[in-house]
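sorry for the late reply, my laptop died twice this morning and i had to redo everyting from scratch. anyway the thing you sent over, i finally got around to it. pasting the sequence first so we're on the same page, its 298 residues, then the predicted structure underneath. double check i copied it right bc i was rushing
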Amino acid sequence: MSATTMGSGAIPGPAKDEKTSLALGRSRHRANVIVKTLCVAATLIGLVFLASILFTLLWRGIGGLSLAVFTTSTLPPGSNGGLLNAIVGSLIQTVLGAAIGTPIGLMVGTYLAEYAQNSTLGNAVRFVSDVLLSAPSILIGLFVYTLLVEPFDGFSGIAGCLALAVIVIPIVVRTTEDMLRLIPNTLREAVIGLGAPKWKMITLVCYRAAREGIATGVLLAIARVAGETAPLLFTSLGNLNWSVDLTKPMASLPVTIYQYAGSAFEDWVQLAWAGALLITFGVLAINIIARVVLRGGK
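ok and here's the structure:
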């Protein structure tokens, strides 16, 4: 019987299993190569687009940079105006918007991660935060316009700051919750086991362990609001004159870029490119400085 079986060309059990394993290994290797190739191609495509954007900003924006851009307010076409009032207005509104939205987002994210993980209220707050995160910024601008601009019959820097704060909050909420959830429960149990209250465990242990991730979320929020135009068109509107009064319309770089980029005057278009370059490198500088400070604090 054994001779008949061998003569019929049947493959013994171990040899057949080894052949199947080799075929499966080659299939997996091919799949790995294909996926890796697609990932590398997607990365290269993304880098090409990013490099083209940065190159265009440098090529078109550097020519418009001069001392007058930082020392002169916006002026009529052909008057060698600058962007001083827009730069200062953007700094004020972005800093105040982040200063208002970051603590609120941090507290809400902490509540969702540490106190209301499976509660009905926590799920409702998380759902609202996610909806707000994906809401178009122009709707937020209209919402603040209805609350603070229309009832008081006037645009203001305060309304612009609050509109940016509303955009900041859900980004910080989502990042804070995700970063705190990544901390092992064993670390929390060890701190509680030593007799520390929960609030001290959160502030002295969890925040320290998650500070880089939370800081990244805050930076992402700042990067987003620094370039927002639609909410500011409905709230702070813009101002061609120098003004740091939060109760009056206030200039900002995104609104000025929006107004100047579609202008028929070459000097205004050039200033628009210079303003876009300033926003890009301003956000880049904030990211670099924050990461250096966080790493140096370890």
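The chain has two domains: 13-64, 67-296.
thats about all i looked at so far, will dig more tmrw
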